[in-house]
């Protein structure tokens, strides 16, 4: 029977749908393309999916098949020509060099939640990081380290019945050295906490062991559940103690502050989310009660014991450095150190004077947009200029000995403080010449420390330089012997190295930096949106809540 002509047909013409679901196409049935489920799949209870199937030309060529109609169909040629006839004229583009610090710049979550830093997605997209040869821990290294640990130190009888004594040794040998920028002096986490532990309760040892297990779980995930159990037991003991003894009595006991410091570090090493700020706020209340008690007993409060003084410095420093990113309200004031002390602190990696200036800059940046008169603006400008001059002439003293690494870390933080001042108070941005100069100086110091395989206490200066890096001018310098240096490459190499040499949560820091870079890259295409916020408030503050940059 001959086919009817188009003019003789009745009814709608049934055409083939190009957007039909996979189930209908597999059954060779016309799909009505209803969303979210087509009629046929709904009636038959089938999973209606419209995912595209990507076809790669290389697969078809390797199997001797034609890729679509390219080079096969023609009105003037024989349709039997195959794709292999074009192999001599095909030019393949060479693959770019894949560096270990490379990363995928965007994902779906970037556009769905641009105000959040997706740590998991960022870690998935990260390629194999750069790690110094002397800090790489393999499974064999961990086994050797575990077998080399002797019995627990006899000075601490509590460890004999608590068990897991190797975690205390891990804390001393692996965690403590990562908490100081000095290559010659011992960390306060060992020189102060170790003598204090000789008369401590089992709760403090559990807190120390929990921190050691959490940090060790980075290389050996089997220690993660153990660290979580020890942390839960420590929290239970601490809550019971606070309930039984009361806040006033606990405020005068330095062990409570030290336990809270260990729990705070645990949360920073673990996920670096809002949980560590809970310990920060709790410590603030206890410290305030202790100081009120001391002031009531004597007209001039006596200097606290070394453990209490170190714990106060720890929490106050965490507060100052974290606030530089998120611009939150101050928790700890400037009365936890001498404002004119130029000696570099081993834990902070800079002088207390520099930390005091940073705290003042953050407070001023919070009030910048509230200036409502020419008089207040003039006062603000004078204070900003005074802080800038103070930073430019600040000399940080190493103390006894000649520790070049500690001095370099302190200088990087001084330069980062100047960069932070210009961005937070003067509204500078990555294209500002002064910002470009400071970023190059900081990353030059970072590059030198990378070459020496020593990058301690550099989380904050690397972060500040990274978020203010100009995406359109990524080349830092050009060397005829070593080639050009990329800004983002240097930052990513530094972050990878710091993940081994510090206890800071580099995964969170890296995710926030990558989110800032993504936002800047997108603005290069669509153009920046002008508003009342300066560059730091627009790109950094919204995604930097509860960051630990100490």
UniProtKB/TrEMBL annotation:
Keywords from UniProt, A to Z, are:
DNA-binding, Nucleus, Transcription, Transcription regulation
- Key word DNA-binding present: yes
GO cellular component terms listed in the entry, alphabetical order: nucleus
Q: Name one Pfam family in it.
A: Fungal_trans_2
What is the annotated localization of this protein? Nucleus
Say where the protein is mainly found.
Answer: nucleus
A single Gene Ontology biological process assigned to it is: positive regulation of transcription by RNA polymerase II
Coiled coil regions, renumbered to chain: none
Molecular function (GO) terms for this protein are: DNA-binding transcription factor activity, RNA polymerase II-specific; transcription cis-regulatory region binding; zinc ion binding
InterPro entries for the chain: Fun_TF, Zn2-C6_fun-type_DNA-bd_sf, Zn2Cys6_DnaBD
**What is the protein name given in its UniProt record?**
Uncharacterized protein
